[in-house]
Design a protein that fits this description.
mainly alpha
């Protein structure tokens, strides 16, 4: 018998998107302490914020601080960072982009050293500075750092006090255009934790 000829499938016109033209999801950039950790562990030369071709003015002290962090010498790193921030603030100004980046590193070191309240304070201050400068991305990154530090605070009363400040600024950022507005679940998670902390604080007071 003659072989049965199969009909070729009819292509669906306009139904299947072209893989090349289909929109690709934009990867979420590392933010907060994750971004700081990437910079500490990376081998790329430190450059001016926003300019990948110009060497950073504070490349030397930052490299020494990073080396101390990588070797686990967090106390040495904290001392180096504190001194470097003070010196750089005097010469460049406390809100110079490189000084702000160094202050972010100082907050990360405080977190690694087991001082979440200091890490929180430093990060939230930076968030306010970046927001005032109109840098929503940097401000949200600092809010994420503050949130990481806040979650490490175990005392419920202290957690509530810090959380009110955090959620207040975070809510303001979320009401504006920017990454915070696109990441509402993170803010809702913080509010949920505030509820749990309130219950723990009441139980502690009653007990």
């Amino acid at each position: 018998p003659a072989p049965t000829r199969r009909r070729a499938p009819i292509p669906e016109l306009g139904m299947t998107p072209d893989p090349e033209s289909a929109p690709k999801p934009t990867p979420t950039p590392a933010r907060g302490f994750d971004a700081v950790a990437e910079a500490v562990l990376g081998d790329a030369p430190l450059t001016v914020p926003g300019d990948a071709t110009t060497p950073a003015l504070l490349a030397g002290p930052t490299a020494r601080i990073n080396e101390a962090v990588k070797e686990g010498r967090t106390e040495d790193a904290a001392r180096l960072a504190e001194r470097s921030v003070a010196e750089a603030s005097g010469t460049l100004g406390p809100e110079h982009p490189e000084v702000l980046r160094l202050r972010e590193l100082t907050a990360y070191i405080a977190y690694l050293s087991g001082d979440p309240e200091l890490a929180f304070r430093l990060s939230l201050d930076l968030a306010g500075i970046h927001r005032a400068a109109g840098d929503a991305e940097a401000a949200y990154g600092n809010v994420q750092s503050a949130a990481t530090a806040w979650r490490a605070v175990r005392d419920p009363e202290q957690g509530l006090d810090l959380g009110r400040e955090l959620v207040g600024l975070w809510s303001e950022l979320a009401a504006e255009e920017g990454p915070a507005a696109d990441d509402a679940e993170q803010l809702e998670s913080a509010r949920t934790r505030m509820g749990r902390l309130t219950e723990r604080a009441r139980a502690h007071a009653a007990g």
